[in-house]
Design brief:
- There is one protein chain.
- This protein is of the alpha+beta class and 190 residues long.
- The protein is 17% helix and 48% strand.
- It has two helices and 13 strands, in the order H-E-E-E-E-E-E-E-E-E-E-H-E-E-E.
- Strands 1, 2, 3, 10, 11, 12 and 13 form a seven-stranded antiparallel β-sheet that branches. A six-stranded mixed β-sheet has the order 4-9-8-6-7-5, with no helix packed on it.
- Strand 2 and strand 3 form a beta hairpin.
- The chain is globular and about 70 Å long.
């Protein structure tokens, strides 16, 4: 009986260590990418302060991107990112992992939903646009107690962005929260 319990505890410990090791490997070896964000909600009743992040590269208009054209909810997608000024932007979206060009990174995500209409505020009408909303697994970031509101509601002259590490398999991990391009919070190894 105690042998089974030992094996169960050992397997659970090894799984937990593997999960931590995979995340640390992504942070240590991934390509650093800076993404434009819009924080949504800073508090979880059970976990403390956190920032829920919505990235500009999460809403993809397929007409503006190269790559594949038909996706459905829960599909795995690979988005090619390239630097464009201060931030990285999506340049194409694919069903299978493409080979990135020089200076590009490929991030893996999951289609949360698709939409074929979008409100055109300038024209006051619905526009026909195929749009994907993609989650990359980096939408929630827990911060030190009492600092979530600071990041959710930055001062008028402050701009919050996120530095993400993207490994060669497309997995992403948040490396740092940046305010006006300077690290506010840095994720450390272990």
């Amino acid at each position: 009986m105690s042998g089974r319990l030992f094996i169960t505890v050992l397997v659970q410990t090894l799984i937990l260590l593997a999960m931590i090791g995979m995340r640390q490997w992504t942070l240590a070896t991934g390509i650093p990418v800076i993404l434009e964000t819009q924080p949504i909600d800073p508090r979880s009743l059970f976990s403390g302060d956190y920032v829920r992040l919505n990235y500009k590269v999460s809403d993809l208009k397929l007409e503006e991107l190269a790559g594949d054209g038909i996706f459905k909810r829960h599909d795995t997608v690979f988005v090619v990112l390239a630097p464009d000024g201060e931030y990285w932007k999506a340049v194409s979206v694919h069903r299978s992992r493409p080979r990135p060009g020089d200076g590009q990174a490929v991030i893996k995500g999951s289609v949360e939903y698709t939409d074929d209409k979008l409100w055109d505020a300038a024209g006051y009408k619905m526009a026909e646009v195929t749009r994907l909303h993609v989650k990359y697994g980096i939408e929630d970031y827990f911060v030190q107690e009492g600092t979530g509101r600071e990041l959710e509601r930055p001062q008028q002259d402050e701009k919050v962005s996120i530095q993400v590490a993207v490994d060669r398999f497309g997995n992403a991990g948040i490396k740092a929260v940046l305010v006006n391009g300077r690290p506010k919070t840095i994720e450390t190894l272990l």
